[in-house]
Design the sequence.
């Protein structure tokens, strides 16, 4: 059977053969008993996760996971309501025993550490410096009063539907799954809405469905969401800006207008008083 | 059911809990009594609170179905 490469970037390789998908994780990542536990947790929640086919494998020093192929999101018609409902359901399940801690949103500092020199990169670094010390990795992670199971790296590429596209939506990619503050699962979409990249009706449909399904990451009153989303979405703006600048550098091109806007948001974030 | 305009076959699908008939041939949409109002109410409910000012939310806006230009990847990749 011939295999087809689905994704090959940043040291991650995803290959499909028939209805099975194999993911070779980035070298040095997805290791040890914590990752194995994350895979087990996903396997125990088939109504939420595209079930992994067995425990992670070690192949030539890399971690490899297998799962059934699922149809990805159609970029022209993202399932905003289903995404909101699925996240609400994830945040409602009793946290399984021995769930690893989500800790801090480690991807923010990682993306910033890979920035090159330049004016735009400096603006992103200044915005990063205004984030709470624990988010930057310079202070212990504060206690979370109501810990929930969270995906940890949610975006539309983390949703597939079973089979050829008529099944229910499920999460993929358990690398960042953990217990912690579920608000981080809403932070990326909130950041994209705040910076004008995600249209208000898309964000509204997502958030409305999340609340309607009893999602606990935001307070129930409409309009109160930014009391908890402000800081996490600033952090995600920094992360997305840093990732985008790296892509721009790799592709050797100028910033697109949306990317300039993202850097502008970083300039304004840096001008706000630093978050405790 | 057949399309009142071109007599094509109508498929029923569900949008946010509302049943909609769409013609497989001309893509025309048929709404039952009250469904348009139900959809309108739904849209009103989706009116999201404005985000914080630091985002510059109103500086540049893209279509609902667009590819979000250079930042399309941010919706779909880590």
Sequence:
């Amino acid at each position: 059977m011939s295999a087809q490469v689905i994704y090959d970037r940043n040291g991650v390789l995803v290959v499909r053969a028939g209805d099975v998908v194999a993911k070779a994780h980035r070298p040095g990542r997805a290791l040890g008993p914590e990752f194995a536990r994350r895979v087990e947790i996903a396997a125990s929640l088939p109504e939420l996760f595209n079930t992994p086919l067995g425990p992670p494998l070690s192949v030539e020093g890399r971690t490899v996971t297998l799962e059934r192929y699922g149809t990805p999101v159609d970029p022209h018609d993202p399932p905003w309501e289903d995404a909101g409902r699925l996240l609400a359901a994830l945040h409602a399940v009793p946290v399984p025993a021995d769930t690893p801690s989500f800790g801090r949103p480690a991807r923010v500092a990682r993306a910033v550490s890979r920035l090159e020199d330049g004016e735009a990169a400096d603006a992103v670094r200044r915005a990063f410096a205004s984030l709470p010390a624990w988010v930057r990795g310079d202070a212990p992670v504060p206690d979370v009063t109501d810990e929930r199971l969270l995906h940890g790296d949610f975006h539309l590429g983390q949703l597939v539907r079973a089979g050829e596209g008529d099944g229910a939506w499920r999460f993929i990619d358990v690398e960042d799954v953990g217990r912690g503050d579920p608000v981080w699962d809403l932070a990326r979409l909130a950041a994209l809405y705040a910076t004008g990249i995600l249209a208000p009706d898309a964000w509204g449909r997502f958030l409305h469905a999340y609340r309607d399904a009893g999602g606990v990451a935001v307070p129930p009153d409409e309009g109160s969401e930014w009391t908890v989303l402000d800081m996490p979405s600033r952090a995600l703006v920094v992360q997305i800006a840093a990732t985008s600048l790296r892509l721009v550098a790799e592709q050797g091109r100028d910033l697109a207008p949306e990317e300039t806007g993202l850097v502008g948001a970083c300039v304004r974030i840096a001008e706000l008083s630093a978050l405790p | 059911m057949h399309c009142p305009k071109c007599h094509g076959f109508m498929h029923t699908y569900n949008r946010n809990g509302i049943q909609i008939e769409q013609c497989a041939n001309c893509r025309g949409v048929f709404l039952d009594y009250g469904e348009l109002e139900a959809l309108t109410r739904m849209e009103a409910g989706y009116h999201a609170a404005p985000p914080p000012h630091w985002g510059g939310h109103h500086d540049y806006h893209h279509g609902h179905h667009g590819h979000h230009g250079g930042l399309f990847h941010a919706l779909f990749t880590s």
Q: What stands out?
A: Chain B touches chain A through 34 residues (CB under 8 Å). Chain B has two helices and three strands. The mean pLDDT of chain B is 76. The first strand of chain B starts at residue 10 and ends at 15.
